[in-house]
Amino acid sequence: MRGNNNIDRRTFLKVAGLSGLAPIATQASSQTRRTAWTRFAFLNDIHLPSSGQNHNFKRLIRSVEDEHKADFIIFGGDNVFAIESADQKIAKAQLANWSSQVAENVTVPFYTLLGNHDLWGWAHNSPGDKSLARRMAQDAFRMPGRYYTFERGGWRFIILDSIQQGPFGYSTSIDEEQLSWLSKELPKTAVPTILCTHAPLLSVTGMLLTMPGPTHLTPRFAPNRLVSNTRQVLKLLDANANVKAVLSGHTHMRDEVKYKHARHVCAGAVCGAWWKGDYEGFGPTVTLVDISADGHFRHRFLDWSPG
Length: 307
Prior knowledge:
alpha/beta, 6-stranded mixed β-sheet, globular, 5-stranded mixed β-sheet
């Protein structure tokens, strides 16, 4: 009888469905005794329409709050389904539905970024009011501004707006106004810091999205997949080693890049392929991040299945 109960740890984790969490459990074991962790969910590319997926939004929030005990949530942009080319009535309906679903379901503090699909009338040749679009989204998302900072768990968070107006609709960049602000904010950062941007600064999956170049030997990156002036932003980050991580989404794929002292985490998409299964082999994703006041950072990607 004793032999039947002698299950090894690897088998136990597999049977319990926790094998994907094993590295984090192992890492935490030596630190938990001395470290208090704060957990948050980074939920990007939800693409919530005005109807049809509200039950999945509720399931999502209940999972991260009740099951995974997130202390707060960051919504990483492309929160509504797509209003950049919609008429104003549809845009208002999607934004109103988002606002009501957050009010009904989210009970922890939350913070929000702007994504390209959140901005009404920003598609190419759209007649929409570009300045009004940002105000509509910021009001629906309860944002204090298009870029801002906050502090939680002994860390500082810097929220950037990576979506700008471009000649063919939107472009992905950090504009001069934000760069000037960031250059003043970063020297104030004496605690561990996380930067959040909808479009990635660095991303392997973003780099894989290429377009044909003049010859087959010279492919070029697809436009608007990565922040176009990444080098300028990285130069500012390089001067402050307290910036430990950069979180992003936008590509609907997930990866991690370690560059100098910061980890760049591209966190997939909650909706996968816009609520139609996987995108390029990446399924619907929830990203959980644990931080400690003494500067430790760890994250994990969780697959989830919309019902």
